[in-house]
């Protein structure tokens, strides 16, 4: 059987706990692939992973290979095919008496983590490795990591699939269609309250979702605000940031890269802008993506962006350029 090495940082955290069994079970990489897990935690926490490892063994998965715990990212990154970078501080917690309210507050705290992680993955990871950054602020963390990895054969992504799923769930209950019938749900830009979930290009049976809904007020106000603020709503309700749905979105992103994307659909993730849709190069931006039969990830071209959407794309672009400026000493 084929074997792959999968690195997960923040493996003892909430998302890690929901993610690991689904990486190991065969669900993500297939029932004919052995998954070796390389779990990473900070030194103060790494011992806790022994409990996680025991639980993974006790699941009895046929597809689980070797599981190891590390606090040294350079050792952990050796020969990895995939890296899921979850480890970082979430919003909603208090540090030195200050409550971390906005993802922007996390920039300086979490950004530093990604310099060494990038260097380690770029130098020790396999060529063609894929990296999904989940830890916030995900887009800019991915930019920092990718810069330090300095390995053009690897693909760095930041997660926006959770936002796409949130958008689909809102549409499904508004127009009473199953989620499986909603295609091409694009999240443009940053995984932050400036993201733009695009209902003009989202499709149900090849018809634009905005033209099916015919309720501009709902689309421009209720829907947009609900999706943009969903992370905060969950933190307020649960006292902790989303974990099961975040882990689910990470699994879906990995699966989307492994399966060729159907015509008329896309998957959502943020990748390095190549200037498509007039987005400046050099930022990690949410685009409509397709994975090809050859396993490449491409930005889907030629979608229509109306003037309202263009304004929204510019707002989230500006925020990403500001984030990049704020961490300029890390890049
Ligand atoms: P958590 O606090 O439960 O777990 C984070 C874990 O990361 C902790 O165990 C911590 O020890 C570990 N960690 C911190 N620094 C590390 C480092 N340098 N190396 C390895 N491990 C490290 O948090 P969580 O709920 O699992 O969330 C993790 C991150 O994911 C947060 O930044 C959160 O905001 C983000 N998140 C992103 C999305 C998204 O859609 N992109 C969704 C939900 C959460
Ligand atoms: C989310 O969207 O649930 C996460 O990014 C957590 C947050 O801080 O919003």
Task: Provide a descriptive summary of the structure in words.
By secondary structure, the protein is an alpha/beta fold. The chain has 2 domains: 2-158, 3-Layer(aba) Sandwich (Rossmann fold); 161-330, Alpha-Beta Complex (L-2-Hydroxyisocaproate Dehydrogenase, Chain A, domain 2). It has 12 helices and 16 strands. It has helices at 14-24, 49-59, 73-76, 106-111, 113-124, 138-149, 161-175, 209-213, 216-228, 230-238, 244-258, 307-326, and strands at residues 2-9, 33-40, 64-70, 82-85, 94-95, 98-99, 130-133, 155-159, 182-183, 186-188, 196-198, 203-204, 207-208, 267-272, 284-291, 297-299. Strand 15 (284-291) and strand 16 form a beta hairpin. It starts with a strand and ends in a 5-residue tail after the last helix. (2S)-2-hydroxybutanedioic acid is lined by residues 90-91, 103, 136, 162, 231-232, 234, 241-242.
Keywords:
331 residues, alpha/beta, L-2-Hydroxyisocaproate Dehydrogenase, Chain A, domain 2, 2 domains, 40% helix, globular, binds nicotinamide-adenine-dinucleotide
Attached small molecules: nicotinamide-adenine-dinucleotide, (2S)-2-hydroxybutanedioic acid
- CATH fold name of the largest domain: L-2-Hydroxyisocaproate Dehydrogenase, Chain A, domain 2
- Along the chain, the helix and strand elements come as EHEHEHEEEHHEHEHEEEEEHHHHEEEH
Strand content: 15-25%
Gyration radius, in Å: 19 Å
CATH architecture call of the largest domain: Alpha-Beta Complex
Question: Helix/strand-derived class?
Answer: alpha/beta
CATH C-level class of the largest domain: Alpha Beta
Give the biggest sheet.
9 strands, mixed
Mean pLDDT over the residues? 96
**How would the global form be characterised?**
globular
Strand order of the largest sheet: 3-2-1-4-7-8-14-15-16
Low-confidence stretches: none
CATH superfamily of the largest domain: Lactate dehydrogenase/glycoside hydrolase, family 4, C-terminal
> Can you tell me the number of structural domains?
2
The number of strands is 16
Count of helix runs: 12
End-to-end CA span: 40 Å
